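Internal ticket - ligand job 402, pyridoxal-5'-phosphate:
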Amino acid sequence: MTSWAQPEQAHAAEWHDETTVLHGDAALATDSSVSPPIHYTATFKAGSAEEFADMANTARHPGFYTRYGNPVHKRVEAILAELEGTETALLMASGMGAVSTTILGLVERGDHVIAQQRHYMSTSKLFEEVLPRFGVQTTIVDQADLGALEAAIRPETRLIMVETPVNPTLTLTDLQAVARLARPRGILTVADNTFASPLNQRPHALGIDVVVHSATKYFGGHHDLTAGAVCCSQELAERIWAMHVTLGAVLSPMDAWLLLRGLRTLPLRMERINANALALARWLESRDEIEQVFYPGLESHPQHALALHQMKGYGAVIAFSIKGGFDATSRFVSSLRLATHAVSLGGVETLAVHTAAMWAGTMTETQMTAAGIEPNFIRMSVGVEHIDDLKRDLKQALSGLA
Ligand SMILES: Cc1ncc(COP(=O)(O)O)c(C=O)c1O
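stdout (C-alpha cells):
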C-alpha cells in the first residue's frame, strides 16, 4: 500500500503559530472558498477503475471513505502537525479515541509498557485494566521519580506513556529526561499534551515520539465538540492509522470543520488563557480562605524550575484546595455565578468542578487518596473572561464560606 503524502507547505516552517493556524492548510484547499467547504460525505467516487484501485490502496487517502480520511481532516491535521513540529497528524473522534488507538496500534501481546501513577482516568484504565487483558504487562511509576522509571525498564519494554501537567495536582513529567532514557533503548514514547497545548509545550522537540491530544479541549476551544489527535512521524502514523481503520473512532466532517474554525484562534485564546490563569492562581494564593494552589506557573509549585524549562506558558487549569471539608467545597462550587459548574477544560468559558464529587461514583476513597484527590479540591479551567470579573466571582463564592 502506498501512502498519501501531504503537499509541501510554502512557508510553514518559517511561520509563527498565529500564521500557521490560519494558513497552514492552504495547500490543501479543494476550491476557491475562503472558508473551507465541509466534505459531508461518507464516501467518494472514483473517475476510473485505475483511480479507484489507487484510492483503495493508498494509506490515509483523503478522499476514498471517511473512516480512512476526509479532506477536512487533512486540513486540521496539517495545522496540528505544524504546531507540534511532527511530520504528520491523525484526527480521531475523541481524546480517548486518540490515546487508545495509538497505544493499541503500537503494542503487542508480550510487550511491556510503563505508564504514570496519575493519568487522565480513562488512560489509567487502559494501562491498568485493558492492556493486561490482552497480554501486555504494565508497570506504573511515579511521574516525578525518574529513578523509578529507569528501574522499571525491562528488555521487553516497548513503550512509555507520559502526561504532563497531570490531574489533579498538575504534577509535571520531565519530557527530555524520559526521552533520554527511552530513545537509546529503542523504546517508543507517547506524551498526552492536552493540558499544555503545543503553544505552551512541544514534547516532540524534547525527544518524545508521539504526541496525543484531547482536541475537545484547547483545539476546539468552545466546549462544543469532542475530538482527538495524534502527532508523529509518517511511519508511526501509518501503524496507528491501520489500527484506527479497525477501531473506527472517526471524527465527523462537521466536527472536523468546527475544530478547524476553533484552531484559527488558538494562539489568541491561549495568550489570554495563560495570562488569566496565572493571575488567578496568584490571586488565589494570596487569599486566607485557600489552603493550597497548584499551578506550574507559580513559584510555589514543587517543579516550577522544570515548568520554566519545558513550558512557555502554563495553561488553563488551576487546582486549589479551600479551607474546609467536602461540604464547604461543595457549597463553594455551587455558589460560583460566572464560572460554570462543568467538566472539561481549555474552552473560552471558565469551568469549575469539585474533583472529589466528580469521582465519587467511580472511585473508592482509597483510590481517590492514591490519585491525590482530596475532598476539598477544586479544578478550575480558566477561560477568556475579564480577569476582574473572574476574581469578583471567586471572591463572592469564598465570602459565602465564612
Ligand atoms: C489529559 C486528557 N487526556 C485525554 C482526555 C480524553 O479526552 P476526550 O474527552 O476528548 O476523549 C482528557 C479528557 O478530559 C484529558 O483531560
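Auto-summary: The radius of gyration is 21 Å. The mean pLDDT is 96.
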